[in-house]
Amino acid sequence: MSKGLTNSSIDRQNILNNPYAVAEIEKAAGIQGIPFEGKTVLLKEQVATFFEVTARTIDNYIEKFSDELRQNGYEVLRGNRLKQLKLSLSGQSDHEIDFVTKTTALGVFDFRSFLNLAMLISESERARLLRQAILDIVIDTINQRTGGGTKYINQRDEDFLHSAFVEENYRKQFTDALKDCVAMGNFKYAVYTDKIYVSIFREKASEYRKILKLDNRDNVRATFYAEVLDLIASYESGFGDLLQQQATVKGRKLTTWEVDGLFKTFESQAHWKPLIEKARMKMASRDLAFRDALHLQLKEYVTPVRREDYERFLGEKSKELAERLEDAKDVMKRLKERE
Questions:
Q1: Average pLDDT for residues 312-335, to the nearest whole number?
Q2: Alpha helices in the chain (DSSP H)
Q3: According to the 3-state scheme, what is the secondary structure of 199-257?
Q4: Tell me: the pLDDT tens digits for 69-92?
Q5: Which residues contact 234 (CB under 8 A, 6 or more apart)?
Q6: What is the pTM for the complete model shown?
Q7: In angstroms, how far is the first alpha carbon of the chain from the final one?
């Protein structure tokens, strides 16, 4: 994973949204701060001392990246909350915090915003070393929680198994429609599968394989997220039905030119647009965050992965596919025993 954290807000946010990695980084960093409202916070002067820069340098970064830092936990305390912080400081004698008793507004960093700042400061050697440690811990955390690899991290989603079963049924309907309704050799299955892939995520299967570094034994669809599988199933169901209708009307199999024309009209229907954009965003963003795989054709769709997605693929609800299959088997067995 080669990330330019100082230059990429998406890469920074992907790390800060990963609660498992942040927890491990906090343990490894061992930063000593001020207990406040159930967490640890740091004053600007403490942060400046840690990074071996001036307080003015910290002020410059707060001014330049105010929205990002506030989103990730930096805040200015006033009123009663500031009084509570002063009480927490009453027993401390560090010279850096002597001035706090006189101030009426005070900015504080929690650990996430401290990390955020570490990923921004370019003048500090300590910040650079911490960024290296952050990246190593993120990789180790993801690998540990996925059993050593991310190729099939999509299968840890509790929605994956259902989507895969549904898509397999629609896939059979689609290939049957191609077999019965299209006058073309067996390569038609690959041709029109690729047309669906290109329509949804702008890549043929062979291009997708290269980006994810899949080998010939890997099943491409086994690496798709549930939302992508759902959209592919919709395409297969809808276009397969259209092929059957047109072949029935004409009383014969359709030519390649006829099928290509039908597909162009089919994929241009307005109702696909929001579904396609959602699938592209999910695939491009998650693959970059979880698999360190950049889909160049979808780079404008990359956004930070939400905290909920880290829970979905790395959290307690996520499971290996083998576990989900075992659970499904037990459910089916219980249902059969009731009959």
A1: 67
A2: 9-16, 19-29, 44-51, 55-64, 66-71, 79-89, 111-118, 125-145, 160-181, 188-201, 205-212, 226-250, 256-267, 272-291, 307-314, 321-338
A3: HHHCCCHHHHHHHHCCCCCCCHHHHCCHHHHHHHHHHHHHHHHHHHHHHHHHCCCECHH
A4: 999 999 999 999 998 888 877 766
A5: 170, 275
A6: 0.85
A7: 52
**Closest C-alpha among 21, 38, 1 to residue 112:** 21
What is the phi/psi pair of residue 179, to 5°?
-65, -45
The closest alpha carbon to 142, from 257, 337, 313, belongs to: 313
310: which 2 tokens?
């880290």
Rounded to the nearest 10 degrees, the angle between the axes of helix 307-314 and helix 19-29 is 90
At 114-131, the pLDDT tens digits run: 999 999 999 999 999 999
Closest CA to 231 of 272, 180, 183: 272
Buried b (16+ CB within 10 A) or exposed e, 239-259: bbebbeeebeeeeeebeeebb
> Could you tell me the sign of the dihedral formed by the alpha carbons of 76, 82, 86, 87, in that order?
negative
Digit-coded pLDDT (tens) for 63-75: 999 999 999 999 9
CB 153 within 8 A of CB 290: yes
> Letter for the amino acid at 43?
L
**Secondary structure class of 71 (helix, strand, coil):** helix
Task: Say how far apart CA 145 and CA 120 lie, in whole Å.
Answer: 27
Phi/psi at 40 (5° precision): -105, 130
Distance from C-alpha of 1 to C-alpha of 219, rounded to nearest angstrom: 24
Identify the CA nearest to 211 among candidates 28, 337, 202.
Answer: 202
Closest CA to 69 of 107, 100, 18, 96: 107
Amino acid at 297: Q
